[in-house]
Amino acid sequence: MDSQIALLLGQDGLTSGAIYALLALSLVLVFSITRVLLVPQGEFVTFGAMAMAGMQAGKPATLAWLLLGLAALRLALMLPAALRRRRLPAARSWGMLAYAVALLLLLRNLPLQQLPMAVQALLALAMVVPMGPLLYDIVFRPIASAHALVLLIASIALHGVLVGVSLLMFGAEGARSEPFSGNGLALGAVTFKAQTLWVIGVTLGLLLALYAFFNHTLLGKALRATAVQRLGAELMGISTAFAGQASFALAAFIGCLSGILIAPLTTLYFDSGFLIALKGFVGAVTGGMASYPVAALGAGGIGLVESFSTFWASDYKEVIVFTLILPFLLWRSLTTRHTEEEA
Fold this sequence. Notes:
The protein is an all-alpha fold. Helices cover 73% and strands 2% of the residues. The protein has 15 helices and two strands. A two-stranded antiparallel ribbon has the order 1-2. Strand 1 and strand 2 form a beta hairpin. The termini are far apart.
C-alpha cells in the first residue's frame, strides 16, 4: 500500500465514519432518554435516501402515504380513551393528520423532478422527521414503563414491519441520487470528492448544532435531565412523554439526513439502512451507550477500520468490524456493576 492508496482509503473511511458517528449519537440519545434501543434507526436512513432518489427520478412520493397512515393510526388509537373521557383527542393529533394530508396534496401537485436539490431534501425531511414521534406514540409510549427487554422486542418487531413496508413502497431495486455538486478538492495527489466534503462538513455542522442545542437551550437541557434521571425530571415538571417524542424526532432527522448525504455515494436498497445503523451501534457501544463524544469517536474509528479492511481483507471486512464490539462488551461487563431492572 502506498501513500496515495492510504489517503484514498482514509477519505472513504472518514466519509463512512461521519455517517456512523451521526447514527451512533442518535442511538445513544434515544436509549438514554427512553431506554429503547432503536433498531429501526436504519429505516430512517433508507427512507431519506429513497425519498430523495425517488423525487429525482420523477416517482410518486409514496412515503407521504406512510406518514398519513401513521397519523391516522395514532388518532384512531387515541379515540377510545378520548371518548371515555367524553372529549376529543388532543389538537396536536388532528394537526398532524392535517399536516400529512396537506403534505401529500403538495407533493402530488409539485414538479418534484424539477425542484432544486435543497428543496427536495427539505421535502424528504418533511416526510420522514414527523414519523419519529408518531412511531414513539404508537409503539413505545404505551409500554414506556415496561422492562428494557420488552422495549427491545418491540423495537425489533417495528424494524421488521418497516422493512416490509419499505419493500412495498420502493421495491427491491436499488436507488441512488445525484451528488450535491460536481467539483472536488485536490490536495496533492489525492482529490477529495465533493460529496465527501459535503458529508464531513454537514456532520461537523450538525455536531456543533447538537452541542449548542443540548447546552444552551431549555429543551435541550430538559432532554439531558431526562436522560440523567427520568424520575427527577418528572418531579421538576418535565414531561418524559414529550422527551421521548423529541428524541425520536431528532433520531428521525439525523437518520433521514444521513440517508440524503450517502445516497449519492452508494446504491441503497430497501433494507440497506439496517447494516449502516448496526455499524453506528458498534460505535455507540464503545461509549457505553451513554457518552456522546466517545460514541462519535468510536464510530469514526469504525469507518476507518472498515475502509482499510476493504483493502487488506475485503471478504472479511464485516466480520472485522463487528468483532470490534467484543472487547468493549467484555470490558463493560467486567467494569460495570450489574443491577436487576425492576419490571
